[in-house]
Amino acid sequence: MQRVYINKISDFVDKDVTIKGWLYNIRSSGKLMFPEIRDGSGIIQGVVAKSTVPESVWEDFSKLTQESSIIVKGKVSKHPKKENVFELQINDLEIISLAEPYPITPKEHGVEFLMDRRHLWLRTPRQVAILRIRNEIIQSIRDYMYINGFILFDAPIFTPNACEGTTTLFATEYFDLGKAYLSQSGQLYAEAGALALGKVYTLGPTFRAENSMTRKHITEFWMMEPEMAYYDIDDNMDLIEDFLEYVVSRVLKNCAVELQTLGRDVSKLEKVKKPFPRITYDEAVEILRKKDIPLIRKTESGEEQIRPFPWGEDFGAPHEEAIVEDFEKPVMVHRWPAEAKSFYMKRDPKNPDIALGVDVLAPEGFGEIIGGSQREDSLAELEKRIKEHKLPFDDFQWYLDLRRFGSVPHSGFGLGIERMVTWICNLEHIREAIPFPRRPNRIKP
RNA sequence: UCGACAGUAGCUCAAUGGUGGAGCAUUCGGCUGUUAACCGAAGGGUUGCAGGUUCAAGUCCUGCCUGUCGAGCCA
């Protein structure tokens, strides 16, 4: 008898099939039982009638516990009441392993309880849907990059120094060479790749040791960083919107069932079409001033509100929300005050106080999902900047070599995979966007 | 790191300073179309830890621990 997966069950109506999976839940009604069986691809309701199955099968079903692994055989039928829903009229059961009492019931649970059992929580329909969408996002990223001539360029995880010199890094002993740090970005290495291969991208884990306890931060997250030679900041933004449109459309096309499981309002995602709004930092500040959103600065006695919003300050959560709320697409904020941005960003030739950076803010208040820029390609400027930021000059010699030997205008950006998943899936918290999230107060399971 | 809030049965939550309860889960019984099924019964507690106020503390006070949310940092 053919073994089938539940998400393909509609192809087998009136056929006898085998399903290999686990018992998700079971309801009984005297001489009838309704086991819900999951196999990783979906859930199907089985029907077991005492009058039509052997007594041993009926007894075996009676003793089944939640999450017991089972193989069932039966005929696929249409649900008597529901459209496009299928059932399995079960006539045989093989118990592979009878599960011990299962801690995660179909009822409500708290976050801590579930996170302590993340390895089991992953089996629930909601988590399965999220991880399937994560898979589609990453696969579509790889496909987009491959189709468009980008070369996968894996950056190292052990690095000798801070890439951007700002955030706190995880340190570890590295043989006789002193401290090594876990990478917070593959960008600098991707720049070397871009000058070798033209267009490259990295896709791998990155690490930030900041004690950030918010719904948008994890300490270990996956980042995709394309880097392109002969791209300026505007080429970079062209790529960002084309890329984001592709990924979102792929999820809409291939993950309709999963989005429905999550209750996602897909009409919001369907609006993610080119072109996206591009506003300069100056224009964003104008929006904040018009809406009278102040800068909030901490003082010894508490906090003070500064209005109008002063030019040169970075945006916080309330500012991002105010900027995004009038748009239904990702918003690209570009050309930032250089003071607020990293050392490697190229200055605007028309205004040295401006850095050619771009932040992409997801709609619906999900915040920053992409940070990118045109990179500084002048050796003298970059040397000056590294000294100003008091970065270890020797460690950056190889990076400066990229400006010594055939420097070109080049650009790139970093996309936070989990933030993308959080947005697409409309999650409350980033911790659901990765199988085993790492946060400052959690390393297990 | 700072601020706010919370911690009571395996889980989710109630309980005016005055004898700690319910739903679910578990066990047993009932039910031939259930949908987080339902109905009946049973078992299940050092109220996060330490101290204090009080005739009396789950409840008020202090400290600690743990967690959640927010801020900063950013993807």
What do these coordinates show?
The chain is of the alpha+beta class and 445 residues long. The protein has two domains: 2-97, OB fold (Dihydrolipoamide Acetyltransferase, E2P); 119-277 and 327-433, BirA Bifunctional Protein, domain 2 (2-Layer Sandwich), CATH 3.30.930. 29% of the residues lie in helices and 29% in strands. The chain has helices at residues 55-63, 111-116, 118-121, 125-147, 187-197, 233-254, 256-261, 266-270, 281-290, 317-324, 379-388, 397-404, 417-425; strands at residues 2-3, 16-28, 32-38, 43-49, 69-78, 86-97, 151-152, 158-159, 171-173, 179-182, 199-207, 220-229, 278-280, 295-299, 302-306, 331-337, 347-348, 351-362, 367-374, 410-416. Strands 7, 11, 12, 13, 16, 17, 18, 19 and 20 form a nine-stranded mixed β-sheet that branches. Strands 2-3-4-6-5 form a five-stranded mixed barrel. A hairpin with a 7-residue loop joins strand 5 and strand 6. Helix 4 crosses helix 6 (233-254) and helix 4 packs across helix 13 (417-425). The longest helix has 23 residues, at 125-147. The protein starts with a strand and ends in a 20-residue tail after the last helix. The structure holds one RNA strand of 75 nucleotides.
